């Protein structure tokens, strides 16, 4: 059944608008439009990013799994990334540096810019510059790395050999553990709130 | 938009993080259910960059392996799922900010650094994120969150690498934030 | 040698099979035409109603923009002409059945009046900008000096100031003609089913008025005036949405060509951009924000105003582009 809309259909673009609206709304509501709140996760004064991020991932993973079980959505028919080990790690670390310097990630910078954060607008500008830089140097620097170590479509359940459902259960337990951990860290080390 | 004064927002104005997480999860499920797509933040800019190069220098684009596909597809930047998603995010952000009374033009930074420093690092951070998201096939939401939603190894590696990279370098940039 | 068989029986390469000779100039012209008409209309209307002191921006200040906006439109029109040097030939005839002729003459009349109108308010404008920067004040002083230096000019401005009420009436009527004309211009094309509907005229008029109201509320410094114009704007948006729904219902209830024209927006190539860009960005979101403003939320007025302007511009671009695709012949 799902996905409801054909990928190339025009209605799908409208669905994208509505889904994006909800995405932007939630990010703004959660306080992701504030770079200092986002950066808090790296210094322990605000763990909202970890909380929202993990809750969202767990909810989505569980929901999609259930939809799949009910036969409403098949993983073959929706987006599923290939795992490129090395480029994902290198790219991820580069993004991590970008995160700690810029205080936003591409997704959160959009609602932040929308409500008038000048730093977010500059961040987006920088991102476009970065993508141009990457595009024009693609063949010289990135092409080989980007296409290396392709493991294909690997799912966590298969990788660990424990089946999809159990993998999600483990994921949920880890997430709950993390929530407990971050709150404990904040209390134990008496990290003070930062005004922003 | 003339008040650029900085005041402390009431922390209760932000949503409970767990509730926000569940709602965000539902948005992700909706994206997969209706469009078969994961959410993304950086892909839209990539589409626009590609389209702009194809438009301005079609011959170069047809030749370069990065633009090849885009040059053939004659894709318009306005016909991309991610571009519409980002457009929606702008509107969603504006409306949410309006309800919370957060619509204000301001440059936010720690009191310990100057605006100038913040500007430089915001742009630099953007550049890093731009490059990294292309190499890593998506950003925090595109590769990480959406990848984790379908329980793909790739998503967990991406999320781990992004946050790991952040923690790894957090020490060097602590002056920017605390 | 390649031979073409002309099945339609017509061989007009600029019309069949696709008329694609109107580029960015025409939609831009339609946009600024509607905007100028709205600015002049609101100014004249509220002056006639005697609310000049209460609604300062709309009556005295915003119409300053009108002549500049019209000039942009005229430049766009000139660029669109194949032979710009012959534009004057439009003025060698008066054809009551041609909207092109109507438009050309209306523009010729409204252009000087749109310059004279704000000049009659020079004193009020000077007072309004008394706290502005040096350059603005210098510019106003410079204009005043010129008028004072040239006696006939000074006398004629004084004469117009004396008969400002009558001038307002002329302006209001001309502005309505200009606003309607931007819509009629398209619907006069019988060969394009998307354009050939009587709703297009009022729809463009209302949309133009709403962009004008957006500009006025953006410029206005008084909260009361902003609220009045945001209310006007809300009303206009509601009418616009009604017309848009009506437009599509009309198409869907017509013949196959009209249905096909409507399908461009209901699943076809222009669906996403129309519903997202024009309806959501240009109408629904500004309406939400303005409603919130009325309920006391603090909204920077520039956001809904800008969205309305973007939506209005996009609407004309899409209508002109899409209209050139629709046709009767197959």
Based on Cα principal axes, name the global outline of chain C. globular
* Major sheet of chain C: none
* Overall body shape of chain B: globular
What's the tally of helices of chain C?
13
Radius of gyration of chain B: 19 Å
Topology, number of strands of chain C: 0
The helix/strand class of chain B is mainly alpha
Mean pLDDT of chain C: 84
> Which regions of chain B have little confidence, pLDDT < 50, spanning 5+ residues?
1-9
Distance between the termini of chain B: 28 Å
Structural class computed from helices and strand pairing of chain C: mainly alpha
Low-confidence stretches of chain C: none
Largest interface: A-B, 134 and 124 residues
Largest sheet of chain B: none
Brief characterization of the structure:
The complex is a heterotrimer of chains A (196), B (178) and C (330). Chain B has 178 residues and is an all-alpha fold.
Structure description:
The complex is a heterotrimer of chains A (196), B (178) and C (330). The mean pLDDT of chain A is 89. Helices cover 69% and strands 0% of the residues of chain A. The longest helix of chain A is centred in the last third of the chain and has 25 residues. Chain A contains 9 helices and no strands. Chain B has 178 residues and is mainly alpha-helical. In chain B, helix 2 packs across helix 5 and helix 7 crosses helix 8. The two termini of chain B are 28 Å apart. In chain C, 44% of the residues are buried. Chains in contact: A-B, A-C, B-C.
């Amino acid at each position: 059944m799902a996905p409801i809309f054909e990928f190339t259909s025009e209605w799908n673009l409208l669905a994208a608008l509505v889904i994006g609206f909800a995405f932007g709304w939630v990010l703004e509501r959660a306080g992701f439009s504030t770079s200092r709140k986002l950066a808090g996760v790296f210094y322990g004064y605000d763990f909202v990013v970890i909380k929202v991020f993990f809750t969202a991932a767990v909810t989505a993973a569980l929901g999609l799994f259930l939809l799949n079980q009910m036969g409403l959505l098949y993983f073959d028919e929706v987006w599923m990334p290939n795992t490129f080990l090395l480029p994902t790690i290198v790219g991820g670390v580069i993004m991590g540096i970008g995160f700690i310097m810029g205080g936003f990630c591409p997704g959160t910078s959009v609602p932040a810019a929308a409500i008038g954060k000048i730093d977010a607008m500059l961040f987006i500008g920088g991102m476009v510059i970065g993508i141009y830089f990457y595009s024009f140097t693609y063949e010289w620097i990135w092409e080989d790395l980007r296409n290396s170590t392709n493991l294909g479509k690997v799912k966590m359940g298969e990788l660990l050999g424990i089946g999809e459902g159990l993998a999600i259960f483990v994921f949920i337990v880890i997430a709950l553990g993390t929530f407990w951990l971050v709150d404990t860290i904040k209390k134990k080390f008496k990290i003070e709130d930062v005004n922003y | 938009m003339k008040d650029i004064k900085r005041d402390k927002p009431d922390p209760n104005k932000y949503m409970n993080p767990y509730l926000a997480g569940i709602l965000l999860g539902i948005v992700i499920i909706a994206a997969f259910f209706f469009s078969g797509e994961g959410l993304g933040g950086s892909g839209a800019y990539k589409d626009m960059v590609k389209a702009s190069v194809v438009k301005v220098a079609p011959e170069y684009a047809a030749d370069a392996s990065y633009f090849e596909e885009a040059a053939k597809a004659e894709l318009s930047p306005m016909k991309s799922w991610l571009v519409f998603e980002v457009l929606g995010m702008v509107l969603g952000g504006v409306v949410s900010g309006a309800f919370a009374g957060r619509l204000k033009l301001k440059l936010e930074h720690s009191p310990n650094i100057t605006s100038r420093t913040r500007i430089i690092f915001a742009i630099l951070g953007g550049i890093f994120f731009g490059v990294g998201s292309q190499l890593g096939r998506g950003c925090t939401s595109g590769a990480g969150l959406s990848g984790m939603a379908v329980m793909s190894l790739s998503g967990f590696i991406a999320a781990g690498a992004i946050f790991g990279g952040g923690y790894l370098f957090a020490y060097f940039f602590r002056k920017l934030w605390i | 040698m390649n031979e073409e068989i002309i099945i339609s029986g017509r061989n007009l390469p600029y019309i069949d099979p696709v008329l694609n000779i109107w580029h960015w100039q025409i939609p831009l012209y339609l946009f600024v035409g509607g905007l100028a008409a709205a600015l002049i209309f609101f100014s004249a209307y509220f002056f006639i109603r005697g609310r000049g002191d209460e609604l300062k921006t709309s009556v005295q200040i915003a119409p300053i923009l009108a002549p500049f906006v019209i000039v942009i439109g005229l430049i766009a029109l000139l660029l669109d002409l194949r032979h710009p040097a012959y534009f004057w030939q439009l003025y060698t005839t008066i054809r009551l059945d041609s909207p092109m002729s109507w438009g050309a003459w209306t523009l010729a009349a409204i252009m000087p009046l749109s310059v004279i109108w704000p000049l009659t308010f020079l004193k009020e404008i000077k007072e309004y900008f008394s706290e502005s920067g040096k350059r603005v004040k210098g510019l106003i002083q410079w204009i005043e000096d010129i008028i004072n230096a040239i006696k006939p000019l000074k006398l004629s401005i004084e004469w117009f100031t004396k008969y400002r009420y009558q001038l307002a009436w002329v302006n209001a009527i001309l502005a309505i003609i200009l606003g309607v004309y931007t819509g009629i211009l398209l619907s006069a094309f019988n060969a394009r089913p998307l354009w050939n509907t009587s709703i297009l005229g009022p729809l463009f008029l209302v949309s133009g008025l709403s962009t004008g109201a957006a500009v006025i509320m953006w410029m206005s410094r008084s909260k009361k005036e902003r609220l009045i114009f945001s209310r006007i704007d809300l009303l206009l948006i509601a009418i616009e949405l009604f017309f848009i729904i009506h437009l599509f219902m009309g198409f869907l209830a017509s013949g196959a060509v009209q249905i096909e024209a409507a399908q461009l927006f209901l699943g076809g190539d222009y669906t996403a951009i129309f519903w997202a860009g024009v309806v959501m960005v240009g109408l629904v979101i500004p309406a939400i924000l303005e409603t919130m403003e009325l309920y006391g939320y603090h909204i920077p007025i520039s956001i809904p105003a800008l969205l309305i302007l973007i939506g209005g511009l996009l609407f004309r671009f899409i209508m002109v582009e899409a209209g050139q695709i629709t046709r009767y012949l197959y």
